[in-house]
C-alpha cells in the first residue's frame, strides 16, 4: 500500500498543527485564571463565621479539621477515579471540587494561598527528584530519628 503524500502548505502560509489539549495555551472567559483560587479562598475565609445552615463552607468548617480533611480526601479519590476512567469532563468537574476543598482545608489550617504560591515558586526549577531526596533526608532528622531512611 502506497503512503499518501502530504500536501505542502501554500507559500507564505505555515500549516497549522493541532496541539494536544495538555499543551494548548489557556484561554477562556475573563477571570478564568488561577487568580480565581485567591478570590475563592477569600470567600471561604469570609464564610468561616457564617451560619452553617446558609453556607456550605461554614458548615464544613464548623465540623472541624478531621471532617474537612475527610471531605478533601473523598473529593481527591473521586478525581483520581475520573482520571483513570479517562472522562475529561468529569475530571475537570472533580478537579474543581478538589481545589475548593483544598481551599477549605487551607482556611481551616490558617494557610493563605500566597504561602503556597511562595513554596511553589521556591521549588520552581528544582528537580523533583532532588527536592524529594532532600525532604526524605531531613524529615527523619527533624523527627529525632538517627537515620536518613524514612521509617
Short structural summary:
This protein has 151 residues and is mostly helical. It has six helices and no strands.
Q: What do these coordinates show?
A:
Helix 1 packs across helix 4 and helix 3 packs antiparallel against helix 4. This protein has a domain of 72 residues: MazG-like (Helix Hairpins), CATH 1.10.287. By secondary structure, the chain is mainly α. The protein contains 6 helices and no strands. The longest helix is centred in the middle third of the chain and has 22 residues.
Mean pLDDT: 82
**What is the helix tally?**
6
Instruction: Classify the fold: give the CATH topology of the domain at 34-47 and 54-111.
Output: Helix Hairpins
CATH architecture of the domain at 34-47 and 54-111: Orthogonal Bundle
Question: Approximately how much beta-strand content do the residues carry?
Answer: under 5%
Give the structural class: mainly alpha
- CATH classification class of the domain at 34-47 and 54-111: Mainly Alpha
Q: How far from one another are the termini? A: 60 Å
Helix/strand order: HHHHHH
Low-pLDDT sequence parts: 1-6
The rounded Rg comes to 22 Å
For the record, what is the CATH homologous superfamily label of the domain at 34-47 and 54-111?
Answer: MazG-like
What's the main sheet like?
none
Q: What's the count of strands?
A: 0
What's the helical proportion of residues? Answer: 55-70%
- Give the overall form: globular
Amino acid at each position: 500500500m502506497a503512503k499518501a503524500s502530504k500536501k505542502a502548505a501554500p507559500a507564505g502560509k505555515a500549516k497549522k498543527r493541532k496541539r494536544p489539549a495538555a499543551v494548548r495555551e489557556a484561554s477562556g472567559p475573563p477571570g478564568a485564571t488561577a487568580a480565581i483560587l485567591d478570590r475563592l479562598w477569600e470567600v471561604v475565609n469570609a464564610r468561616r463565621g457564617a451560619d452553617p445552615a446558609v453556607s456550605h463552607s461554614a458548615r464544613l468548617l464548623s465540623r472541624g479539621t478531621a471532617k474537612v480533611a475527610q471531605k478533601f480526601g473523598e473529593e481527591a479519590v473521586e478525581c483520581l477515579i475520573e482520571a483513570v476512567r479517562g472522562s475529561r469532563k468529569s475530571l475537570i468537574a472533580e478537579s474543581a471540587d478538589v481545589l475548593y476543598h483544598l481551599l477549605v482545608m487551607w482556611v481551616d489550617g490558617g494557610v493563605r494561598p500566597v504561602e503556597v504560591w511562595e513554596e511553589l515558586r521556591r521549588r520552581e526549577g528544582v528537580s523533583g527528584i532532588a527536592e524529594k531526596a532532600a525532604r526524605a533526608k531531613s524529615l527523619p532528622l527533624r523527627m529525632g530519628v538517627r537515620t536518613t531512611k524514612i521509617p
